[in-house]
Amino acid sequence: MNSYLLKRVMVLFPVLIGMTIIVFSIIHAIPGDPAETILGQKATEQSKQALREQLGLDKPWLQQYFNYMGDLVQGDLGTSIRTKTPIAKEIMPYLAATLELTAASMLFATFVGVNAGILSAWRQNSWFDYTAMIIALIGVSMPIFWLGLMEQMLFALKLHWLPSIGRMDQRNPVESITNLYVIDTILAGDWRQLWTVIKHLILPSIALGTIPMAIIARMTRSSMLEVMNSDYIRTAKAKGLSQFLVVYKHALKNALIPVLTVVGLQTGALLGGAVLTETIFAWPGVGRYIFEAISSRDYPVIQTGILIIAFIFVFINLLVDLLYAVIDPRINYK
Amino acid sequence: MIQPILKIENLHTHFFTDRGEVPAVDGVDLYINPGEVLGVVGESGCGKSVTSLSILKLVPDPPGEIVGGRILLKGRDLVPLKEKEMRKIRGDSVSMIFQEPMTSLNPLFTVGQQIIETVRLHRGLSKKEAREHAVEMLRKVGIPRPEAIIDEYPHQLSGGMRQRVMIAMSISCSPELLIADEPTTALDVTIQAQILDLIRRLNEEQGTAVMLITHDLGVVAEMCHRVAVMYAGKVVEEGSVRDIFKNPLHPYTRGLIESVPRMDETRERLYSIPGNVPILSKEMQGCRFAPRCLDVMDICRQSLPKLTLQEEQHSCRCWLHESQQEDAV
């Protein structure tokens, strides 16, 4: 198990290096000049050239790449051209915001999706099954920015049940320790603010979680249907177990592996930041952070941001692979 | 007269498919006395497995449904029972072992977890007691090092060991009736003998009645006290092992016995009953075996004979013998 883990971690490096090469090439292929974006169109050629030299942008690409990698290896994630702040420090609150939203969205998506999938399979071809699968189909095909806007119109503007934008009540904010506001409010013991934070999370996580929820529901259903026909389910019934135990204990555990794969992939995708959802809900997440960096040609931020997201994505996949072995004893990593 | 532990009367289990209603079990009558081993034999698709699943009401519904008849377990009819009542019977007073030991155990739970679950459910034992009981059961079915095997997963065991585990699980609540649906079909011949030996020992030592479903007449001769021969959803002949083998009455039974390869004979080809099992439908008329029967008469194609008693505890469903009996009367 440990040697397997080591092997998997070693494989991470070539993946991430490949990632840096691709991102670096793409960024430099984008038309536009950071010096001009920063100084404005009226800046003189001299001042632009001076800035390029200062940022190292006058050097050949290959040299720029190796300089960047050299810094990276030493743990220097670079400095934002725009704000002159170290990216490692700057990106943390954004990452935390995305992490919190992703966690809430996936919690919603997994809980609702898995249960809907199970019930659909359990009561196959019933009205519940048909309704759930139609909703799932609508879920995967709906543009999420539209869903977000509709949610805001109904629950914020019309019914005034939930806040439409932001992460918490800014009038009396709690101290940011982790930047995960749910945890920060708990640490501060501010239960009212905790409730506000949760209320702020509801609409964006439903908007963001709808597609994963629909995918998870459909995957759970098909996986459960396959498992429910297996011999060991008949054995479980023949032992006199209740339907609930047969379905939720004996069948679900066996049906979980493909579902887990989907949950992992979707979590990774959401962690990459959802620019549209974040924009609609004024959610200060990593998606918007990188989007702004792209608009202002802030090369180091784009590179580092994408690298971090890629790292998280690969890490989650590794985690899912390890979880397989926890669920299924037949999977043995040696 | 002893009360049978299980008495099936005129059982009808039909499947409702796109091609119409299929009477997989079409008026089956059977009984098993306490401590008895009843063999149910027949070709694939004759309804023997569906009959066994019907007893525990485990026929997949839809498409299957028990549409008529009674299943009396010690005099109590199971057919009208609610699911909740049935669950108390399954795995407790009636338990079942299946054909495929490779797939019949849940791969994600240890052997112990699967046995303990059953014992705790029906006997309400504590975790520790249930575990001890499970070890005891594993030892009883001849598993070496039961204390260690109990924590293993099914994939770590061989086919024969898994079937032993299945048997340990099914006898863990001391059932009065054990239904074994082709328990040795998927196993090697040497392992088959061991498993059959185990089932017979349980029958002799614990007095557990066994309903042994098989298509292997050798197994029947070896194991059973009584035999019911099924064809196309009906019992066509029923009697003691001795009667069935020495004096088979139904042409189908005779054909089956003829088909068994024998050591003392040198034949170029094995005997086989010509034709195929009919596709079951509600519109069938006459004796189901008529199209394949060598002794077929006109009446066979027109109306269905009854299962009638020919001699003591030996009954047969055939016009050949129906007429004889009428003559006798």
TrEMBL record, chain A:
Question: Which controlled-vocabulary keywords does the entry list?
Answer: Cell membrane, Membrane, Transmembrane, Transmembrane helix, Transport
What residue ranges are annotated as transmembrane? 9-30, 94-118, 130-149, 201-220, 255-281, 301-327
Q: What membrane topology is given?
A: Multi-pass membrane protein
Which segments constitute the ABC transmembrane type-1 domain?
Answer: 95-324
Localization of this protein = Cell membrane
From the record, what ranges are coiled-coil? none
Q: Please report which protein family the annotation says this sequence is part of.
A: Belongs to the binding-protein-dependent transport system permease family.
Can you name this protein? ABC transporter permease subunit
TrEMBL record, chain B:
- According to the record, the signal peptide region is none
Is this entry keyworded Zinc? Answer: no
**This protein's UniProt keywords:** ATP-binding, Cell membrane, Membrane, Nucleotide-binding, Transport
The subcellular localization recorded is: Cell membrane
Q: Quick check: keyword Nucleotide-binding in the entry?
A: yes
Coiled-coil intervals: none
- Cross-referenced InterPro entries: AAA+_ATPase (IPR003593), ABC_Ni/Peptide_Import (IPR050388), ABC_transporter-like_ATP-bd (IPR003439), ABC_transporter-like_CS (IPR017871), Oligopep_ABC_C (IPR013563), P-loop_NTPase (IPR027417)
| Top-level taxon | Bacteria
**Domain ABC transporter intervals:** 6-257
One MF term from GO for this chain? ATP binding
* Chief place of localization: membrane
Membrane topology, as annotated: Peripheral membrane protein
PANTHER family, per the entry: DIPEPTIDE TRANSPORT ATP-BINDING PROTEIN DPPD, OLIGOPEPTIDE TRANSPORT ATP-BINDING PROTEIN APPD
Q: Which family does it belong to?
A: Belongs to the ABC transporter superfamily.
- Can you say what this protein is called? ATP-binding cassette domain-containing protein
Organism lineage: Bacteria, Bacillati, Bacillota, Bacilli, Bacillales
